[in-house]
Design brief:
- This protein is of the alpha/beta class and about 120 residues long.
- The protein has a single domain, classed as MTH938-like (Hypothetical Protein Mth938, Chain: A), CATH 3.40.1230.10.
- Helices cover about 20% and strands about 30% of the residues.
- The chain has three helices and eight strands.
- The chain has a five-stranded mixed β-sheet with strand order 5-4-8-6-7, with helices on both faces.
- Strand 2 and strand 3 form a beta hairpin.
- The radius of gyration is 13 Å and the shape is globular.
- About 30% of the residues are buried.
- The mean pLDDT is about 95.
Length: about 120
């Protein structure tokens, strides 16, 4: 029997579709960054300040590259690595699901999601 996951009041991604993500029951259009306690608009891969601002708050960033898997820009990965943030690039749907599982384990994670 499956039982619902308890996110202990933290932000989980509950759904997604073309151009939107639903986080903790609220719909957000466009690219976003989701952490356990906050949701931020994100300007995409060129908006490095938002991602660098995760330093000290998260250990792993799941980078959702849109509808398909793609490589993260190498210089972005290196910049975040220098801030002790490990980056895992994948399709946005996979990034959202992986974020949820890892968040439920109590780990310091975030996901940055480009729209599908």
């Amino acid at each position: 029997m499956l039982s619902p996951t308890d996110f202990d009041g933290q932000n989980a991604v509950d759904g997604y579709g073309p151009g939107f993500f639903r986080v903790a029951g609220n719909v957000h259009h466009g690219a976003i960054v989701v952490e356990g306690d906050r949701i931020s608009e994100w300007g995409g891969l060129d908006d490095r300040a938002t991602l660098c601002g995760l330093a000290g708050r998260v250990d792993v960033l799941f980078l959702g590259m849109g509808a398909e898997i793609a490589y993260a820009p190498r210089d972005l990965v290196e910049e975040l690595k220098a801030l002790d943030i490990r980056v895992e690039a994948m399709a946005s749907a996979t990034a959202a699901r992986t974020y949820n599982v890892t968040l439920s384990e109590g780990r310091r994670v975030a996901c940055a999601l480009l729209p599908l």
